[in-house]
Every structure is written in C-alpha cells, then in structure tokens.
Amino acid sequence: MTPDPIQPDAADSPAAGKARLTLAPELLDAIRRVACTEHLLVAMDFDGVMSPLVDHADEARALPRSAAAFAALTALPRTSTALISGRALDSLRAVASPPAETLLVGSHGAEAWLGPNSAQLTLDPEQRDLLADVRRIMKEIVDVAPGTLLEDKPAGVVLHTRLASDDVAEDAVAAARAALQDREGVFLKNGKRVLESSVVHASKGEGVQFLRQSSGATAVVFAGDDVTDEDALGRLVAGDLGLKVGFDFTQAEFRVESPVDVGEFLEALLRERTRCLALDVKQDSPENAIADGPESAG
Ligand SMILES: [Mg+2]
User: Fold this and answer.
1) How many Cα atoms sit within 13 Å of 66 on the Cβ side?
2) CATH for the 23-120+203-284 domain, from 1.20.1280.260, 3.40.50.1000, 3.30.70.20, 3.30.2310.20
3) What is the pLDDT of residues 10-23, one digit of tens each?
C-alpha cells in the first residue's frame, strides 16, 4: 500500500465556498513555513488580539473562532500555546478561560504559570513598601480625575483612562509620570489609555524568551496589538512569525487589521500545523521506511 498523494487543501481553493480569504499571500506563506517547525509555540496577547478591546476590562472575551482554533492548536502534538498579557494572571484566567495546558505570562512578564508547580511571584519587603507608596500616589491622582480608575496587580498599579475625557486622561498620566518616573525601583509603561507601574522589572520580551526556553520551541508565533508587545516582537528571530494587530507602528513582519482577522490567522495556522504533523507521521511510518530502503548502520 502506497501513501496517498498529497492533495491540495480544499479550503485553499476559491471554489471551496469557505469564509472570504483576507490574509495576505505573504502571510499565508509565512504561516506555512512556521507551521512545519519541530516544536511550535503559539503565544498570543489577549486584549486587542484574541479579544476585541472593550471599555470594561472584565467583559473582554476571546472571539469564538480564535478561541476554538487556539484550543485545537493546544491539543496538537509538539505544539505549545501561551497567552502573554499585561493583565495579572488571575484577571487573565478569568477573561480568557484558557485550555488547561496553555502557558500563561501575566503582568507584562512579572508573573508566569507553567504548570501546577510554578513558583508564585513574591515581593520583598522593600518592594511591598514601594508598591504601597505608588498606590497612594496614583490614588491621589485618580481621586481628582473623573473617569480614571486604578487596577491593582500583584507587582504594580495601573492607571486606566479609557473612560475619561482626553484632557483629563492626559493630565492624569502626566501627573503620574512626574511623580513616579524618577523613583528608583518603579518601572512605568505606556499602553493604550493606560499607564502601568510595576515594582518588578519585566517585559513581554523576557516573557517570550522564557516561554521559548521552557517549552523547547524551535519556532515562535507571537501576535500583539499594543506598545508593550513590541518588546516581544523585538525578541523574535529568523524562522519565527511576528504579527501586529492594528495600524500603529510596529517592528512585526506582518500585520492584520483587527481581532477578527486573528481568528482567520489562527485557523490557517491550525490547518497548516495539522497538515505538517500528518506529513511527518507519513514519513515516519514503517511502510515508508521500507519504501525508502533500510537505514545504513553507523
Ligand atoms: Mg493587547
């Protein structure tokens, strides 16, 4: 019995009647390349990538197509999935409901969950005092800036300005920056209508490096939409695939418009990864080994 000839994927054909193909041909080529790596890590930012951006952070949910393709990728052999978020881990779990095997990096890299034995983030007494101080300063600013609000994280405090008028938002961020930017041990990050403060130095770049090593990935896919995601995109190497969601500046090689396109991207990645894994199984099968002749010893 000979192996079946490789059939072109019906979903690729315009006659397939499937959803409209919006991904650029170069991006589809890159997906095909990265999908055939030995061990693939699919690491996604959550807000603005898996989920559309929403006014109330606790209402964010992954789009169904993205969630389904991400879960299916998680179940494949030699394939790891991860979420790399600015959210605290608890908040990320609550909105993302990730598959049990999905690796999690939260608080922009300050927190990580790699399984039941993962170490929890702990602050030393100095960091705890500093965090309390940062919180007091931020609280004073928020109290006089209508529409702004604070979010507590294990290692930081976030100033949210999405619901404030532009003037109020700008003034609040400027006041927080002025009070905190020269404080030793305090690290600030700008995001979309947020100012993040942390008493732990971390970045999504360190997060993606850490995940690459701990998963043993031979290639990484990363998608992000915000300024802080550029740290992760900047750590990608030849053979990886970086995807920017939205129109802001980026060093990513590829770009899509919105989280809706991310669903299509993940479905294409799932399709190609499944195909590559199936081809590998065929190549490794005993009947194939006989057809190729026995391996020479030595
Ligand atoms: Mg985001």
Assistant:
1) 26
2) 3.40.50.1000
3) 444 443 344 455 79
